[in-house]
Amino acid sequence: MFTKIILCLGLLSSAPFLLTAQTLDWVFLEEGSVEGCGPGTDCATGQQCYGLQYTPSLTGMATSYTFGFIANCVNGGTASLQGASCTMTDNTDIDDSFCTDFNVLQFLPSGNTGNLAVTAGVPVILHEVCLTLAVGESMSFEEDSGLNLTVSINLAGGSADTDEPVYATFTSTSADCDTALPVTWESFTAQQVGKVARLDWAVNDERDHDYYSVEWSTDGLSFSPLATVREAVGQQGISSSYGFDHLDPAAGTNYYRIRQVDLGGTYSYSTIETLTFISSDNNGAFTLSPNPAIKEAQLSLTNGHSARAFSLLTIAGQLIRTVNLSAEQDQITVSLEGLPKGVYLVRVGEEVKQLVKQ
Fold first, then answer.
1. 190-208, pLDDT tens digit by residue?
2. Rounded CA separation 201/205 (Å)
3. Do 143 and 69 reside in the same domain of the chain?
4. Which domain holds residue 143?
């Protein structure tokens, strides 16, 4: 399923408490909370809402803010977005163009033309984010190392300054808004065994259970059933384990999930697991070695390539540099000097691969 993200800007004060440094935190907004500015948490539908809570180190008038996060895509697909500004002009942006290939997106909640009075040490909610996650799904938001988390503040006397709040990676899980489930999922794993995809899952509390449907996708968006497993042997308080072998996975990335259905038609999904199978006769337009790398990697082109350049990008798709290639070149060094540790993208023609710097 798609992850539904509803974004709106809010600038409402929460209960004051004192901190010694500027921070940015995710705060779960309980059902009925008046601290946010959007639709609010609705556990009946699995909608979970959070406030981006900023604690300033300065006292003055906040006029704008820009936050940058890298997050995983849920289901391998894009995230639908809806914005509603409360007191600042909403400049939120989301780049999900790398969801299909690399399961990451760039999330940029921001606002400007504001005039919010802030006091050092007193937290305020600047943004509300609402997620709808299937059972077992999670979404992590880590700071985009290529951007700074900033809040611009006009100070008394006419001067201005910028706060850069301290931030720690936040993970939202479906457990944040727990709902009644047909079964309790304990685990789901996918393992490559030769040319076969081995799927194993374990559940508990199979009350009124009917069957499991093993579902498969090659794009992470459209899933098709592979098999129906009906030999339910569990009962309340008892764990049960199941397995299935997919004998003919596709070359490239394969996405798997399990749908459990009870006798009344209620269903829930497992997490989505991926396996990548490489065709023995097709290694793509280029290879990267070593990968991971420390200072540099060698880019080797296959015979008959027509590319005349390669590009090195951040994981969010921001261009770092482009290097031209001659028709005679079949190998070139990709330098990682001066770049922080992390995951980067190398593009040759229409093909993109990940390169990890350690």
1. 998 887 889 999 888 777 7
2. 14
3. yes
4. 3-177
For residue range 72-130, list pLDDT tens digits in order. 887 555 444 454 556 688 788 888 888 877 888 888 888 888 888 989 888 888 888 88
Same-domain status, 263 and 297: no
Please enumerate, as own/partner, the contacts of 332-338 that have beta carbons within 8 Å and a separation of 24 or more: 332/298, 332/299, 333/296, 333/297, 333/298, 333/299, 334/288, 334/293, 334/296, 334/297, 334/298, 334/299, 334/310, 335/295, 335/296, 336/293, 336/294, 336/295, 336/296, 336/297, 337/295, 337/296
Q: Are residues 272 and 298 in the same domain?
A: no
Distance of CA 30 to the CA centre of its chain: 23
Whether residue 141 is found in the same domain as residue 38: yes
pTM, 2 dp: 0.47
Claim to verify: residue 248 and residue 321 sit in the same structural domain: no
3-class SS of residue 32 = coil
Number of domains in the chain: 3
Q: What is the pLDDT of residues 118-165, one digit of tens each?
A: 898 888 888 888 877 766 677 888 998 888 899 999 998 889 999 999
Confidence of residue 344 (pLDDT cuts 50, 70, 90): confident
Indicate the residue among 252, 277, 302 that finishes a domain: 277
Q: What six digits make up the tokens of 344?
A: 């980067």
Q: Burial of 323 by CB count in 10 Å (0-12 exposed, 13-18 middle, 19+ buried)?
A: middle
